[in-house]
Specification:
Length: 324
Amino acid sequence: MKEEEIRPKEIFEEYLELARQDTIRFFSKAAIFPVNCPACDEPGEFAFRKSGFDYEQCPSCLTLFVSPRPEKKAFDLYYEDSPSTKFWATTFYKATEEARREKIWKPKSRLIKEKIEGRLKPESPIVDIGGGYGVFSEEMGKIWVGPIRVVEPSVHLSAVCREKGLDVLECFLENLQPAQLPTGQKCFVSFELVEHLQNPLQFFQTISDLMNENDLFVFTTLSGLGVDIQTLWEDSKSVSPPHHLNFFNPNSIKTLLARVGLSTIEVSTPGKLDMDIMSNNRELIKDRFWRNYLEWADSAALDEMQRFVSEHLLSSHMMVVATK
Ligand SMILES: [Zn+2]
């Protein structure tokens, strides 16, 4: 898989430009508060400033996070209805939906099935938190017997899910009532959401409170110790306020889960794009080893390196399986 297939450069640049304007519109007047490390609650140390947001890194667990961070209300307004989220939900996603379906969601639904099979009954329900465009639910629905319910707060995205005939609840997780959830042992999933959360502890606590014993929670998020983020650092396009505020890592995410009474079954980094992202941004990489490596390595060498990176928890795309 290539980055260009799922993030065509021109449309992605236009999206980033809209996001830059939204950052000013939605966040310049918002109240901001300093926060401690969202994983272990230690005070962080200043790392860099980007688009008006300060990032800190935790000296204990190496989580990278925005602090001070704007109040929750600003993010809620932004995600419910803003030009860049609308552009993402319509133009951007439409242009990439089929590529994403084939390259991301089909393999991801197969991987999720592998992770939960044997731990759940085949007819167990799945609750997709932040279901977005609903493509995961569509694809998972083809290979999973149990019902799938989408929870999606965005006006534009939940409308898309409804048009597809998916079972969607248009609300924020914290407003979800246990009675709205399917009964029996179930699996919560959330993809590429945790990095966006204004208050990760509260989110995980809410999930934990909604979970019964032996329910599963499977999620993907960005690892700040992933090789592309480590080498590109503040120049990484993944480090993109106001979207990405939290970069946990394979260790620190376990700390956070333990704080809300969840235990980690497995952490993996099944990413496929790190080397491609680094190659596309080679001129921004300061580290001599990687700059030179990316210059001389052929595609077979890059594939082999990507495989190694993924297998050794070094990709920035992280998947976690947790239970209560
Ligand atoms: Zn920490």
